[in-house]
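Data deposition worksheet. Section B asks for the primary sequence of the deposited chain exactly as it was used as input, without tags or linkers unless they were present during the calculation. Section C holds the resulting structure in C-alpha cell form. Section D is free text for depositor observations; keep each observation to a single sentence. Incomplete worksheets are returned to the depositor.
Section A, Depositor: J.P.
Section B:
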Amino acid sequence: MKKIFLFLFLFLSCNLMLIAQQTDEILENELNNLVKDFKGDVGIYVYNLKSNKEAAINADTIFPTASIVKVPILIEVFKQIKEGGLHYNDTLVYDAKRKYGGSGLMQFYKDSTVTDLRTLASLMITISDNTTSLWCQELVGGGLAINETMADLGLAHTRVNSRTEGRSEDWEKYGWGQTTPREMTSLLIKMRQRTLIDEASSDEMYRIMSNSFYTDYSLSQIPPYVQTAAKQGMVNKSRSELVMVNAPSGDYVFYIATKNNADQSWGFDNKAWQLQRNISAYLWNYFEPNSEWKPANGFAELVKGLRY
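Section C:
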C-alpha cells in the first residue's frame, strides 16, 4: 500500500511539474525575433500564472543583477523581522559617512537624521536607494546571510557578491549581485502567491514593489491603472528588469536581463531600454489582446530629456 501511495505521489508531482513547465512556443518564437538584432547578451523568462505556461531565452544563464539584488536584500530584511531579530519600525540614526552615490535620496540626508527600517526598505526598492540598500545589507548581517536564505529557497545562482566574504571573483565578474532570469522571477512569484516568508511579509513586500519610481522602461507599456510590481537594475554594460503584471486576464511575470551591451549610453533611447519597452508592449498585447490601451502620444518627449 505504501508503494502505491508513493507511486501516486511521484506521478502527481511529475505531472504538476510538467504542467508548470509547458512552453508557450508562439510567445517564445516571437521573443527570439525581438532580441535577434540586439548587440549584447539577452536572457528572458516569462511565466503566466493563470495558464502555467512559460517562455524562456537563456533563462538559466547567470547575469549581473545591478540594483535588482535589492530584492534578495528586502527578503532577508523581512525574514529577520519575522524571526524577531529586526523590527519594521526600528529607529535608526543616519551617519553621513554612510553616503553612497548613484541613485537614491538618503545620501542627501543631514548627518544624525532620525529614520527607521521601514523607510530604508521602502527607499531601497521604490527609488533604488544605494545608501539604504547597503545599510540594510549590513543590518541583516551582510551578504552571507542573504545568500544562505537564497540557497534555502533553492536558488543556486542568486547571490550577493559585493562586501561578501569569499566572493571577490564573482564581484569582479558580475558586480553587486548575480542571478538568472528564472531564479529571480521565482522570488516574485512566491511573493505574489503569499508564500515568501509568510502571508503578511509577502503582502508588505509586494506593496513596496508596487511603487516603482522608474516607469519609463517596461512599465511605460502597461496601463497605469493596472497594478505592477517591479525592480530595475542598471550599470553601463547591463540593464535588466523584473516585473509582475496583475493583468485583467491573469497575472504574468517577466525578467529581461542583458549584459555585455554595446550601447552603454544613458539616454532615453538606449538600446537595452528600447528592448525592454518593446518586449513589455508585446507581452501586454499578447496576454491582453482585447485591450484598447496604448501608451500616450508624447510620452517619449516627456521623459526623453531625463538623465540617469
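Section D:
Residues 2-20 form the longest helix (19 residues).
The radius of gyration is 20 Å.
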